[in-house]
Amino acid sequence: MKRTSTIGWFVLLTVSFSFAAYFIPLPVESRSLLVPVILVLIPTLVCIPIVLFTEGRDGLRQLFSNARGGPQWPLIGALVGAGMRVAVLILGILFGTSIKADFSVPGTWFVVLATIPLAYFEELGWRRFALDRLLKFRSPIESALWLGIPWGIIHLVVILPGMMSAGSPAIPQTIVLICLGIVITWGYVRSGGSVFTTTLIHGAQNGFVVINRGLTNADATWLMMWAYLLLAVIFVLADRKMFFAKPASR
């Protein structure tokens, strides 16, 4: 099976199962929490059988091999992820919104830390499996956009009625994920393929939502869109040689 077809099957199955997860009969009081947890597990659950079927046990061992990149890159990843939320905070203050950093809510640090292992399951599928293979014949910017669109579409599940981000506008939500995917792609390529680095960008960005409190879901999404769009443009312009490099030249 060709790489393109394996990536295609991964995207198709992951998107399909993610929207199907919304219809799983779960207790009403816990649906908004349990459905997102299921969503983050789906990419890993989809890519494992694909790899096992197409590449065997050696491919599976390679999938879970995380010894890539220098030891400094996970730290860089965590700083980049947290910095993205700082950018949202700064932009919110400049726009005169009611955004605030609030660490006083019980369980705040549990939320910050719990998002990291959950992000790993998404990163294993979307970056280690799909991005790693797509980079073999696409530039990083093309790869980021090709995967960013379906990745963003999947996250529309969390804005459906009864979900944690219900009421958020769909288009800005999708743009947020595409831009985040561009930054994560930068981390993956520059770190030499470290899934720990991308996990910490993704996880820290999720966890440090605690410094972006005080807004409605809709206002927070619009603010994130502008902040993340600006950051994505900065990353691409600052490292355009890497982003636009063809596979043969990397």
End-to-end CA span: 25 Å
Structural class: mainly alpha
Shape: globular
Number of helices: 9
H/E element sequence: HHHHHHHHH
Biggest sheet: strands, sense, closure? Answer: none
In angstroms, what is the radius of gyration? 18 Å
Task: Enumerate the spans where pLDDT stays under 50 for 5 or more consecutive residues.
Answer: none
Strand proportion: under 5%
Total number of domains: 1
Mean pLDDT: 92
Helix content: over 70%
How many strands in all? 0
Descriptive overview:
- It contains nine helices and no strands.
- It has one domain.
- It starts with a helix and ends in a 7-residue tail after the last helix.
- It is mainly α and 250 residues long.
- 40% of the residues are buried.
- Helix 6 (170-190) packs antiparallel against helix 7 (195-207).
